Amino acid sequence: MTELDEEHLLRRVARADRAAFDELYRRTSPWLAVRLRRRCADDGMVAEVMQDTYLAVWRAAGTFAGVQGGGSAAGWLWTIAARRLVDAMRKRARRPETPAEELPVRSTPAAEDEALAGSIGDEVGAALARLAPELRAVLHAMVLDGLTVRETSILLGLPEGTVKSRARRARTTLKEALS
């Protein structure tokens, strides 16, 4: 298998040649799947990325510049797959792990609500009330609900680094307010 063979197959795929597409898939899918699995342990995600990649190849084969453009068919294919994998990982990171209908429903008021109402302590309640809403939400999730940084990140739809920095800012602000 030479790059020129795969380049030739891509040129035929660009002309909607299904036999060429089948041959290209037969030649490239085994190594592509191995490379994707090295970067992602989720077989379902790898299968989805493979499908998206070959769909993109079918649709965009005419855009492949070829060896004259400075690239190889395998390199072009890998670039498409790698981008699809990154997209799939980002999409999964934004999607909550637990469907909303499975989340427990609170039957008692949250400790934060009690603090804000003054039943725990006027000073703490006042300090919590002065926190910016985004800091209060992180503090509520991590301290009062006992969630991890990752769980808070998923719950609030924020990157983990943002959760960490907001938690630090909230604690610092509360400490200053209460000292």
Automatic annotation (TrEMBL):
- Which parts of the sequence belong to the RNA polymerase sigma-70 region domain? 24-95
The RNA polymerase sigma factor 70 region 4 type domain extends over 123-174
Judging by the UniProt lineage, the source's domain of life is Bacteria
Keywords in alphabetical order: Sigma factor, Transcription, Transcription regulation
Under SUPFAM superfamilies, the record lists: Sigma2 domain of RNA polymerase sigma factors, Sigma3 and sigma4 domains of RNA polymerase sigma factors
Keyword Acetylation carried by entry: no
Record-stated family: Belongs to the sigma-70 factor family. ECF subfamily.
Question: What protein does this entry describe?
Answer: Sigma-70 family RNA polymerase sigma factor
Instruction: Name the species this protein comes from.
Output: Paractinoplanes lichenicola
Phylogenetic classification of the source organism? Bacteria, Bacillati, Actinomycetota, Actinomycetes, Micromonosporales
